[in-house]
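step=encode ok
step=design start
structure_in=
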């Protein structure tokens, strides 16, 4: 099957110092792929490089088309949505206004309201809090809002950066179980960056392990879970 996203030799630097040294990975259609790694390994940089928020080299193919030279906005229009670490919601706007903004590149404005309802279906808490300023939502609700806002773009690929960060285990479980529902109902693929390997491997189909800017291991999530080094270093066993 042709991958939805295929990345070859992705390199990125900050101020002349290279931190990604040729990352290769692929994401099949309608699947959840997790990129695991320790602090500073290059997970966030990989997502930033993929959506061209930083200068990169290497080949990126999306839906079997070379998109290496495209801008962030062009990639968004093709269906790649990024939910950055720190979530990036607009604190002074209400939850609903944030969702509305998520649909800004859409031409089919009449369907935007329908989509908002669908997102409230995934995250009923957002409906309850729709008139509340995003900055006053709980961490979990802000994460839900950030994912909801990205879904308003009707993406084919969601790049999620540490959705579990700083959240209580119960909320993390809730958000991760919705990821599966989203993948199943919308056929969206998710590239999930996580430090919490245990929960990420629970939801993912496939996994990659990155160490100091290089992929050192990849395979099905089930196989990676059984890997001795992963169990010792990332699963705390
Ligand atoms: P974490 O989970 O801690 O965010 P990560 O795997 O996402 O880790 P990155 O944030 O991608 O790691 O960082 C990779 C490397 O690039 C690190 O050495 C980091 O210090 C460096 N780095 C990240 N952002 C910048 C920046 N804006 N300027 C300079 N160096 C940076």
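sequence_out=
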């Amino acid at each position: 099957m042709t991958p939805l996203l295929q990345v070859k030799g992705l390199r990125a630097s900050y101020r002349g110092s290279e931190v990604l040294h040729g990352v290769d990975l692929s994401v099949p259609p309608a699947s959840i792929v997790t990129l695991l790694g320790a602090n500073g390994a290059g997970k966030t940089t990989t997502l930033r490089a993929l959506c061209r928020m930083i200068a990169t080299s290497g080949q990126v193919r999306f839906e079997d088309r070379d998109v290496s030279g495209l801008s962030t906005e062009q990639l968004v229009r093709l269906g790649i949505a990024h939910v950055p670490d720190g979530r990036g919601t607009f604190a002074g706007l209400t939850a609903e206004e944030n969702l509305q903004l998520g649909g800004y590149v859409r031409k089919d404005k009449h369907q935007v309201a329908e989509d908002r309802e669908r997102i409230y279906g995934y995250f009923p808490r957002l409906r309850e809090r729709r008139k509340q300023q995003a900055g006053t939502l709980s961490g979990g609700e802000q994460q839900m809002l950030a994912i909801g806002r990205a879904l308003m773009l009707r993406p084919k690929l969601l790049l999620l950066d540490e959705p579990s960060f700083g959240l209580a285990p119960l909320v993390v479980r809730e958000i991760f179980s919705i990821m599966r529902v989203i993948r199943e109902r919308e056929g969206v693929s998710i590239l999930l960056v996580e430090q919490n390997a245990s929960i990420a491997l629970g939801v993912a189909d496939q996994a990659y392990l990155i160490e100091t800017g290089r992929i050192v291991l990849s395979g099905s999530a089930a196989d990676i879970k059984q890997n001795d080094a992963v169990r010792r270093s990332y699963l705390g066993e």
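step=design ok
step=annotate ok -> Strands lie at 5-14, 17-27, 32-36, 56-62, 65-66, 80-83, 157-161, 189-194, 206-211, 214-220.
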